[in-house]
Amino acid sequence: MATLETPPQTKPTLSPSWEMPPEQPDPEVVAMLKELEALDLPGSDGEPMENERERIQIDLSLAALDHGWRARMDFYAGGNMFVYYSIKQAREVLAEIDDAARPKKAFRGPDLFVVLHVDGSYRRQKWVVWEEDGRYPDVIIELLSPKTRAFDLGKKKTLYEQTFGTDEYFCFDYLKPDAIDSLLGWRLDARRGYKPIKPDSRGWLWSEKLGLWLGKWQGTVLRDTTTWLRFYTPEGELVLTLAEAATAARQAAEEQANTATAARQAAERRVEAAESTIEHLQAELARLRGA
Predict the structure, then answer these.
(1) Domain boundary residue among 197, 218, 240?
(2) Which phi and psi angles does 228 have, rounded to 5°?
(3) Total domains present in the chain
């Protein structure tokens, strides 16, 4: 009797235990990303600043950082530009811009901010947190005025502390710069929130994140003479803008040229005096010989 051969049993192919099936994207996340991509986010609203001095102070601070850190490409410093951190906030900003009569309540951005350890080789028109790997500003500076003081020291301070997690927050009253409390600063404590930064004997505040002092400086910028907020090196040297550095270099060259001219003129006077003495001696010698 013929026997039937039992066909060989095939074992099911199993994926290695470390091989996980591809994860399906969360529909809500996909929808959110599509909405974010569809948002046409402006970088500013085009509205003029409250005071021209505010614009000068922002430009001065950015110019000093740009020149002082000219060899670095690992930071981004922005001013008077929108910072977006959530869809809700972005929607509120867009709604307020579309409707001029709508009250301006949405957060739009700080006066000045610095983000460290990012690609700073190109300029942004706005800072969009979700497009920057979730990076929030490391340092924020707000310029206080009677109109913004309560908001900057209240809701904005809370936002930077609890939502942004910004390590250092500074405020400067640019309209009352010589007041005792015109320069204030806080440093974030992981457990206790913002703690005041104690000023030194000069009234300067040390920024651990920037490695610079923030202090007052009396001077003239664009024909406006007042007390400005400036950056200082750890040694106390003023961080110059490119224009200031060029002016300082020109003045140093002029002083060096003036010193060289004065030295040359002094040498010429010594030569003239020596020649006069020789002539006098020669005349006296001739007189004695003729006597």
Answers:
(1) 240
(2) -110, 160
(3) 2
Report residue 215: phi and psi, to 5°.
-150, 175
Say what the pTM is: 0.78
* Tens place of pLDDT per residue across the chain (291 aa): 444 444 555 555 555 555 656 676 677 655 655 666 667 899 887 777 788 999 999 999 999 999 999 999 999 999 999 999 999 999 999 999 999 899 989 999 999 999 999 999 999 999 999 999 999 999 999 999 999 999 999 999 999 999 999 999 999 999 999 999 999 999 999 888 999 999 999 999 999 999 999 999 999 999 999 999 999 999 999 999 999 999 987 877 677 767 667 767 877 788 787 777 778 878 877 888 876
CA 26, distance to chain mean position in Å, is: 37
The span from the CA of 182 to the CA of 189, in Å, is: 23
CA distance 269 to 15: 98
Q: Hey, how many other C-beta atoms are within 10 angstroms of the C-beta on 57?
A: 26
Residue 248's domain spans which residues? 241-291
Residue 253 sits in the same domain as residue 111: no
Instruction: Evaluate whether residue 189 is within a structural domain.
Output: yes
> Do residue 262 and residue 286 come from a single domain?
yes
DSSP string across 7-47: PPPPPPP---TT-PPPPPPPHHHHHHHHHHHH----S---P
Contact of 126 with 80, CB cutoff 8 Å: no
Give me the DSSP letters along 164-195.
I--SEEEEEETTSTTSTTSEEEEEEETTTEEE
d(CA 248, CA 244): 6
